Amino acid sequence: MQQSCNIIIAGAGITGLTAGYELIKKEPKTFVLFDGQRPGGALSTVHQDGWTLETGPNTIVLTNTYLTALISELGLEAETLSADRVSGNRFIVRNKKLIPLPGSPGAFLKTPLFSLRAKLRLFAEPFIKRGTDKDESLADFVRRRLGEEFLTYAINPFVAGVYAGNPENLSARMAFPMLKVLEQKYGSLIKGQFRIKPEDRKPGDLPRAEAPMVTFGQGNHTLTDRLAKKLGSSMKPGSRITRITKKEKKTGEISYSIETETGDSFITNSLILTLPLHVLKGIRWTGFGDLSPDKMLPEVTYPPLSVVHLGFRREDVAHPLDGFGMLIPAAEKMQILGCLFNSSLFPGRTPDDSNFVLLTCFIGGSRNPDFAMEDEGDVYRRVLEDTSTLLGTKGEPVLKRITRWPKAIPQYSVAYQQVYDALAEMEKAHSGLHFLGNFRNGIAVPDCVRNAVRFAEGLNPSP
User: Fold this and answer.
1) CA atoms of 120 and 116, how far apart (whole Å)
2) Strand, helix or coil for residue 270
3) Rounded CA gap, 336 and 163, in Å?
């Protein structure tokens, strides 16, 4: 029997759940469909023998007012944990040593992370002309404005930590739009930092340096679990969507029929798709002509990534772990992308914080995609070799766990404007069809929340 409702949201990650929560206030007959055992998407927490392990985003940075308002409205403020002050310490690896990322002009002048030549090169940035290449790669943008060494030892590891990506392939404008705003409006990244105005930022955005970093006592899935609970019977757990059919009556009214691999069927006049782009391309589209995702969407890279949790006894790690974590430039020829020092950030991540420490390491991504999908033994060997070299870990961890993401994060490439154009063209051609997700207007949790809320309010998610 086909179930009918006014709105269907396909996908129950943070975007789909937030949109459902906001829309159901206006339209009670809203369904949120999701695959698998539980909603949440990439926001996922595992509790194992007293350890709290984040298999997706490890922290949530409250960079916009939409996310802080959502947490408050859901009654989660009391469950929120703020990161320890050591989280301000960020380490970059150079010459196989952890060097603190300088946090002030004085620290920058003294740091061994950059050579004297690189430091002097940075002082030239305010005098460099604006770029004219609209689709300039992030790597070319940084080379032009800041120099090769800054690209190698600051931007390259940062991009590996955020996108699991490569700055040579990412679009400066699409992946980090604020960089282009500062350059085009103020002529300089440095001058722009002092002159930036609220209207230069996306709606609701807060300065990142002032944004609190948080998690929840029981882990980040607390946020998506609470949203799902609020949705109640509107949640429709099911199976993979196999076909979407567009139907048009003689009156011009358009509806969409959704079929799943278990034979369930739904029909609606308003369909919101928050599934990953590679999933959308794998669905059978009927009645859409040439304007369907499988035909319109270009191939988007989602590199594989493995998240490796390691629990050690405190005495088996030489480094004090007095920071957020470490990021590793590709030039260092290490096997992992970086590592977070979870137990230094938040309490209760281990069975006993005085005797154990928790590390979360990342391997694969665009840098070494094959590493992510190797046998478990090979993955552990690579990760432990690097943690031994960099952090002085010894012996066998008391906890080991791997979470694999065969297709992790969409890469906002230099050609990514084609994706935006295709999505906009399909929405224009098919009344009632909408696309929301981390493939559009930002990959971070705050971006996804803002886009979902603004969509529910009838606003452009990101003007």
Assistant:
1) 6
2) strand
3) 14
